[in-house]
From TrEMBL:
InterPro entries: Aliph_Amidase/BUP, C-N_Hydrolase, C-N_Hydrolase_sf. CDD domains: nitrilase_1_R1 (cd07578), nitrilase_1_R2 (cd07579). The keyword Hydrolase applies. Keywords: Hydrolase. Gene3D superfamilies: Carbon-nitrogen hydrolase. It comes from Ancylobacter moscoviensis. This is Amidohydrolase. PROSITE patterns: CN_HYDROLASE. Coiled coil: none annotated. The keyword Hydrolase applies. It comes from the Bacteria.
Amino acid sequence: MTKPLKVATVQFEPTMFEKERNITRLIEMVTEAAEAGAKLIVTPEMGTTGYCWVDRAEVAPFVEPIPGPTTDRFADVARAHDCYIVVGMPEVDPTTNLYYNVGVLVGPEGVVGTHRKTHPYIAEPKWSAPGDLGHQVFETPIGRIAMLVCMDIHFVETARLVGLAGADIICHISNWLAERTPAPYWITRAVENSCYLIEANRWGLERTVQFSGGSCVIGPDGAIEAVIDAGDGVAYAELDLERARARRVLGEKVFEQRRPELYMELPTNTYLWNPLDFFTLYGHRPLPPGRRSRIAVAQFAPGGDVEANLARIEELAVKAAREEGAELVVFPERAVTGLDAPGAVPPDGAAVAKLVAIAARHDLHIAAGLAEDDAGTLYNSAVLVGPQGVIGRYRKTHLDATDHNWAQPGDEWGVFDTKFGRIGLLIGHDAAFPESGRVLALRGCDLILAPAALRSRLINSHAGSAVAQNYPIPTGADPHHWHLMRARAGENNVHLAFANVLDPAAGYSGKSGVFGPDTFEFPRREAILGEGEGVIACDIDTSNLDSRYPTNVVRRKDLVTMRLPHHYQPLIR
């Protein structure tokens, strides 16, 4: 067992054009943390200078080489207290005269490593170049440390790269804005990589930009272990690095369960070209027109009787259609056959035919999970059916502990073109892998349907923030502040319909919902079934205005377009 590691996050409001004041104050706060016993201390992005620079000329008096005078001053503190410090600052490369937004890890020996922000936010191109050092993990006597800078963490690939490289701790330095913090993406990156995340965010107002504060330490399970809301301050936590090194997500050893052979699209970007042109190339699989629709998810506990499960499916389908006005309903993983034993059914057998009949009787489309028996080979599958019959089938590619004693993994993704748009299917544990949703997004999916039977915690609440935000950004308490599936929808700019089993006695957590394609859109386009069995529905829109360019975020996929796949090759090894 490793010795507990005391760490600190520093929240600070720098002042533009007052670099010496900023550094002096940061040195004071870092020294305070070091004297309190912190061995790793993280400070905010661009904390030495402020952030909102308009061009290279304006920031030029404040950039420095690394190592340089600023890193030397922090190294003196690290040496005096035998600790490690992450400093956010603007760097100049003396060879090229390019500027970078960087995080620098400084220890008793001096500069240990530098991370140049690889995925720039809208502000960086005004003065800095995208980082060219990749995503590194630095071995230190206190653990394996990685750094990401602000916008980097919007992209699933950045944190995954350092997770696969063995990071115990991701030090994320930021100037985060426009939402209540600790931000859902921060929590998601810690959870999906089963590592600690130390978040150092700034707060306050700079050139009309309101920054969100919320600096924190997040555990591998997503728990907030220390947090600062508003104001300057230091927060502490003690880390057990063995928790990170167990690499368990939702109770599963996810890094051992990855399927890199299915991720070959990750080092590409299908959204570099106008997707309305790209997906019509050679006349092969053009995107369907899409439309406005109403989608529902159903939450219940299937039993071992197929006929009883089908009756319950029909009951909930009728409720979804008549009371919620839904046109498509998603049911949980193995909703047809039950969870306790496979009870597998053939893909062309009576159970699937009855599911089609339910869809036809109520003029619905239905996605539902089942245990499939294909000539003696068993799969954990989902089918998508409509009044016209079976549209498609998907076999779960990432098996969890409940699957391994009976099911074989599938070997291909399920992507189907429908009147609702391009639909991708995932099943339960698949959604724990950020690679899954990303591949479906790269294939042009507008909507992901996710039948699930997940036991672990999928949500975090928020007590509310004292940081003022412009309407309609919420600041009050929220029981569903973080939901893993909301993050999956937003990071891939898709609508996502997640139908989970609800069976508290067996540990199945429910929290089904339909989530929108933009996590920074408020009020959010989503509906969450927080308690009890039943159905809940939400309107979605996969259409496009009459334009040869994408006008809908699900077709434009901003967060997919901004990926930098030349960094991502290690994800497929």
